[in-house]
Write a structure and sequence with these properties.
10 strands, 234 residues, alpha/beta, Rossmann fold
């Protein structure tokens, strides 16, 4: 099977006087379609930086990155943006919803960037509201939702067009444990339906929902192992 993602000797650094400070060092990694991969490591290990590179939000790095056989390292900014826009969803720790838009409008907004006709946008939003059981929240504003509900809307927005890859940066970091478990169960269902997921987390419990754990330390990929299966909720 052709990997969805191939990284070869990815490095990211900043000038530090006459030296360079490396955030990532020679990271080489393959991600297969349908995997659920967790990136772990101490603060400052380079986890979020690696996620930003995978999501094509950061272009200031060296090495080779192939996504769907496309050489990301050789693409123009517009080509990278298009590849990201049509294939990658991103879930952030801090929700990133727009406060003065309703749930419905927050879900519709990213579709409008893709030149999808209004009628089709409405259909996609209604399907997503129904799929994630938030029809009753569609006219509410983010401030009227709990943290768990806001993150659920954030996940819905990220997957509204069935991206091939879902990236999640500490997706349960601001949630109570029950809310966090609900989000992780949702990720598990999305993965079982075919979405490739890469998450950054400090939580061993969250990592157990995936099938592989990658450990970073000081920018180096130091180990890979299979994840212990998570216990499903009764």
């Amino acid at each position: 099977m052709q990997p969805l993602i191939q990284l070869r000797n990815i490095e990211k650094s900043f000038p530090a006087g006459a030296q360079k400070f490396f955030v990532l060092r020679r990271v080489t990694l393959d991600i297969q379609p349908g995997e659920f991969v967790t990136i772990m490591g101490p603060s400052g290990a380079g986890k979020s930086t690696l996620l930003s590179i995978l999501g094509m939000l950061d272009s200031a790095w060296s090495g080779e990155y192939f996504f769907l056989d496309q050489p990301v390292h050789k693409l123009s900014v517009k080509q990278r943006n298009d590849l990201h826009k049509y294939n990658i969803g991103f879930v952030f720790q801090s929700y990133h919803l727009i406060d003065d838009l309703t749930v419905y409008e927050n879900l519709e907004l990213p579709l409008s960037y893709k030149n999808i006709p209004q009628k089709e946008r409405a259909s996609l939003v209604c399907d997503a509201l129904d799929r994630f059981n938030i029809v009753g929240k569609k006219d509410l504003f983010p401030s009227q939702l709990s943290g768990g509900q806001q993150q659920l809307v954030g996940v819905t927005r990220a997957v509204i067009q069935n991206p091939k890859l879902l990236l999640a940066d500490e997706p349960t970091g601001n949630l109570h444990s029950a809310q966090g478990e609900e989000i992780m169960q949702l990720f598990k269902k999305l993965n079982e339906a075919g979405t490739t997921i890469i998450q950054v987390t400090h939580s061993e419990k969250n990592a157990a929902y995936g099938n592989r754990i990658i450990q970073l330390a000081d920018g180096w990929l130091v180990s890979e192992k299979s994840a212990a299966p998570a216990q499903s909720a009764p």
